[in-house]
Write a structure and sequence with these properties.
Low-confidence stretches: 1-5
Bound molecules: N-(carboxycarbonyl)-S-(naphthalen-2-ylmethyl)-L-cysteine, fe (iii) ion
Shape: globular
Radius of gyration: 16 Å
Order of helices and strands: EEHEEEHEEEEEEEE
Helix content: 10-25%
Distance between the termini: 50 Å
CATH architecture: Sandwich
CATH class: Mainly Beta
CATH superfamily: Alpha-ketoglutarate-dependent dioxygenase AlkB-like
């Protein structure tokens, strides 16, 4: 068989896959709502544009970001924080679209986390070469709640490490429509995304978009 021919064939959702304690992959879980998600992303980013944030250390991130919900994650020279307002406009972040909240609630429940009502959704846009170095998500006020992530567009290699930065990360290929839930003992695991490979996605072109749903408060 010719390698690579069927790399982009969508896999309909079948069952949850546990990858660590509290970490669950739901491959294809978002496939049947992808168009609604993409329309909602268009609407949110028309109001709160994707932008390259600067880290406290002065580096410009290769991933472009925006947010929706009552709180949004932002970074600047003064630090990382959740803020109710978009610093670009001075106005509240766009409301969380109903299709976002509904998918996040259903995905968390499928992974064993009931009543997930995130107040923040970070939208990450990767173009080829963009990456996210190994980090922990620890700016959220509610560590009992999981994080739900949704991958759209080009495939990415997701790095999933342990609770120690030195733990060698496992690698998972995440494709369009894949959802992952990170809670319990995995909530503070180190994780990152390898530099995005060149490619052309049938619906999204030369980009990957990742949504992460969080309980920031
Ligand atoms: C594992 N985003 O925005 S989502 C981030 O693909 C972030 O854009 C990546 O890491 C992305 O902070 C990965 C998957 C993810 C999110 C949160 C986690 C994995 C996680 C928290 C704990 C452990
Ligand atoms: Fe993260």
């Amino acid at each position: 068989m010719t390698p690579g021919l069927f790399d982009e064939a969508p896999t309909p959702y079948a069952a949850p896959e546990a990858i660590a304690s509290g970490a669950v992959l739901l491959r294809g879980f978002a496939l049947d709502v992808d168009e609604a998600l993409l329309q909602a992303i268009q609407k949110v980013t028309a109001t709160a544009p994707l932008r390259h944030l600067v880290t406290p250390g002065g580096y410009t991130m290769s991933v472009a970001m925006s947010n929706c919900g009552t709180l949004g994650w932002v970074s600047d020279r003064s630090g990382y924080r959740y803020d109710a307002k978009d610093p670009l406009s001075g106005k509240p972040w766009p409301a969380m679209p109903a299709c976002f909240a509904d998918l996040a609630l259903r995905a968390a429940a499928e992974a064993g986390f009931d009543n997930f009502h995130p107040d923040a959704c970070l939208i990450n846009r990767y173009e080829p070469g963009a990456r996210l170095s190994l980090h922990q998500d620890k700016d959220e006020g509610n560590m009992a709640a999981p994080i739900v992530s949704v991958s759209l567009g080009l495939p990415a290699v997701f790095l999933f490490g342990g609770l120690n930065r030195n733990d060698r990360p496992a690698r998972y290929r995440l494709v369009h429509g894949d959802v992952a839930v990170w809670g319990g003992p995995s909530r503070l695991a180190y994780h990152g995304v390898a530099p995005l490979a060149e490619g052309e996605h049938a619906r999204l072109g030369r980009q990957r978009i990742n949504l992460t749903f969080r309980c920031a408060r």
